[in-house]
Amino acid sequence: MPLIVRTLFNDAIAVALWTGFGFHVCFPVDTFASPTGPTQGEIPIAVLLALSSTFGFGAAFVLTQVALRWMPPWLGAAVSVPTSTLLFWCLAPFLVDITKADMRAAVLFMCVGLLFPATVTLLNFESNRLMGPNIAGAISGLAPVFAVLLALSLLGESIHLLQLLGITAIVAGVMFMYREQRQNLQRWSFWMLSMPLTAAVIRGAVQPVVKLGLEHWPSPTAAVVIGYTISSAVLIFAAFVHDPKLVRRFDRRGAFWFAAVGLCNGLAVLSLYAALGHGPVALVAPLVASYPLVTLLLSFVFLKHEHIGPQLVVAVAVIVGGVVLLIIA
């Protein structure tokens, strides 16, 4: 019991520290959003916001393992996403300029909300429960492949050699992390592996769509308020359909930790959207996709069950090298 209490206490400190940093970074993002597209001087801001988002997504995967001890994924999602939604609605009066609202952007944000974070949250929670945070996070790290491909066709973005090398390095590093767990592959069916892969496709696809919406309404907070409100409605409805008597499965400890997961994910998404407002998808998506590295480090420190082998060390080095390439590109 003391070990469990100490682990939860350490996780709580990590959430509190990152939440404070997220508020510090994300609070002014709408003020500095550029409707004319990112300039060279905005790229460092995009990098900082993307790395902040990386920590949030990575921490959320680890906290989910704690939360799943008390509540099932479908009910946890109905707590996690609405918690973030409540936070965003509290921030909206201070950060959203409704006079700059654009209906085309609002419709895009609503369409995104039907899939992200609603569907992605359910897929991530369930794959996390079945396969653990590291392998689920590693497969989900393929998102930048889909994000960059769609950005090239939808937004007409260009990609430089160093960026291509950086993206390749990050994806290769994530795959090395995946192969480190290959001894468990025999006990996973195809549909189990398809869950985090589907989450990666959705997460990657929505980023260019959100960036397209931000070009018409440069307000990351408006994007998360609209998207998360739609997702919350979808998840609450799905929870009631799954089990009309939710009270029987509700646990205060699970609700607390899923709320913490929601804050991490929510602030990570806000940072992601803000980064997309300051930099190209080809830069932001791969940086954010390095969050399995954060998941690995935090699970090793707090969950105490991650083995660090030579292949994992190589994977970490490759991912870090890819991040460096993207930053200097």
Description:
The chain is mainly alpha-helical. It has one domain. It has helices spanning 2-26, 43-67, 73-95, 103-115, 118-131, 133-140, 143-154, 161-179, 190-216, 220-242, 252-278, 281-288, 291-303, 310-328. α2 (43-67) runs antiparallel to α11 (252-278). The radius of gyration is 19 Å and the shape is globular. The chain starts with a helix and ends with a helix. The model is unreliable at 1-29 and 31-36 (pLDDT under 50).
In percent terms, what proportion of residues is strand?
under 5%
The overall average pLDDT, rounded, is: 79
Q: Describe the main β-sheet briefly.
A: none
List the domain count as a whole number. 1
- Count of β-strands: 0
Could you tell me the radius of gyration in angstroms? 19 Å
Main attributes of the structure:
single chain, mainly alpha
Write the layout of secondary structure elements.
Elements: H1 2-26, H2 43-67, H3 73-95, H4 103-115, H5 118-131, H6 133-140, H7 143-154, H8 161-179, H9 190-216, H10 220-242, H11 252-278, H12 281-288, H13 291-303, H14 310-328
Helix pairs in contact: 1-2, 1-11, 2-11, 2-12, 2-13, 3-5, 3-10, 3-11, 4-9, 4-10, 5-6, 5-9, 6-8, 6-9, 6-13, 7-9, 7-12, 8-12, 8-14, 10-11
